[in-house]
């Protein structure tokens, strides 16, 4: 790809856009607002795992963090994130705010949506982020194909894809392009109440109807089916005797905003390690021998 064009704003946006991406923009498939609060500062680092580490595989393909004396190197490369949203985007907002506030070592560089008018897309436009519509549909003819989306994500040098209330199944080609680099959040304790048809209030209605006394969000890696990838993090909330689905949803959503930010923070600091049986663990930021 050729030299990058740079979109910038008074607040410091530095998102490289190459000519191919600009073509998407011209085709009204990707919108870039004039202002942004994003920073895309990039620094470099490397990862050294202890020789006797029981868990030994770095989470991201980059394997580029430092952990030589138990301390995390502040020079870990800042990651580039694409968030996929179909609705209001409150998880997207919490991740974006955490990135701006320094809790997440990354920058949201694109918002992908199948619903160009949704709250998450509006928020992205207001904050100067490129909005990519995917997939193409009757109601969204401006949408891009899987190949075009992959090109856009490559052009933006996206490290990680974060699904945050994106309702479409992710095509296998896209899953394969981001090995161990795509997360989703689901509002139940998977593997319970997950899979096709379990979304929104339907999840919470089913939880209440089952008599379960506990629920909570799950952050998991994405595979080619709905909600079946390996679990990375969970939080538990009580299901109260008189809960409505809306009340339970609000209690779970509050925890979603915490746990997704914590999981994404770990991902962006290369603190995910993979157990021999393929289960991902989060290494503590303060104690390199502790995992959750
Ligand atoms: C959340 O409940 C999330 O768990 C699910 O979709 C919902 C998205 O909510 N995957 P929001 O758009 O982030 O507010």
TrEMBL record:
Alphabetized Pfam families for the sequence: Formyl_trans_N (PF00551)
EC number(s) stated in the UniProt entry for this protein: 2.1.2.2
InterPro entries (UniProt xref): Formyl_transf_N (IPR002376), Formyl_transf_N_sf (IPR036477), GART (IPR004607)
Entry's Gene Ontology cellular component terms: chloroplast
SUPFAM superfamilies, per database record: Formyltransferase
Entry keywords, A to Z: Chloroplast, Plastid, Purine biosynthesis, Transferase, Transit peptide
Name of the protein in question: Phosphoribosylglycinamide formyltransferase, chloroplastic
Source species of the chain: Aegilops tauschii subsp. strangulata
Organism placement in taxonomy: Eukaryota, Viridiplantae, Streptophyta, Embryophyta, Tracheophyta
